[in-house]
Specification:
alpha+beta, 3-stranded antiparallel beta sheet, 134 residues
Length: 134
């Protein structure tokens, strides 16, 4: 005898509904972040009030632009303490320069420079007003 439990027909419906809700709900509301070093651990605090308890312990910060800026400038890490991200920083650059270097290239259309004509304007190239009606 095979042990086949009766399949609940609602299970598939529930799973599909949960999958739809995950898509609708969007990205996670919080991120687990670590301070890059002890200095940042003491100084950094999210405007919502979240701060760090220890260097080895993750803090739950909201998934917002403030948190993403701190991750981009290297003061927060998402993959745990002691990762190589903090070491990759160039000590000669400040936080803004470092963040600008890490930012991906913009896919916007390149700016076109004005091309100066090599020919000087002559009277023939200047439009003449139409003759006045008599």
């Amino acid at each position: 005898m095979a042990d086949t439990a009766p399949v609940n027909p609602r299970t598939a419906i529930r799973e599909k509904r949960e999958q739809r809700l995950r898509v609708i709900d969007g990205p996670p509301k919080t991120l687990k972040v670590y301070a890059a070093n002890e200095t940042y651990m003491g100084l950094l605090r999210h405007p919502s009030g979240a701060s760090f308890r220890s260097l080895d312990e993750a803090a739950e910060w909201p998934n917002d632009t403030f948190t993403h800026r701190r991750i981009a400038d290297g003061s927060l890490l998402t993959d745990g303490p002691g990762s190589g991200e903090a070491l990759a920083r160039d000590p000669t650059k400040n936080a803004r320069e470092h963040a600008a270097a890490q930012r991906p290239e913009s896919k916007a259309a390149p700016k076109l420079e004005q091309v100066k004509s090599s020919k000087p304007k002559t009277e023939a190239s200047v439009p003449t007003p139409p003759p006045a009606a008599a």
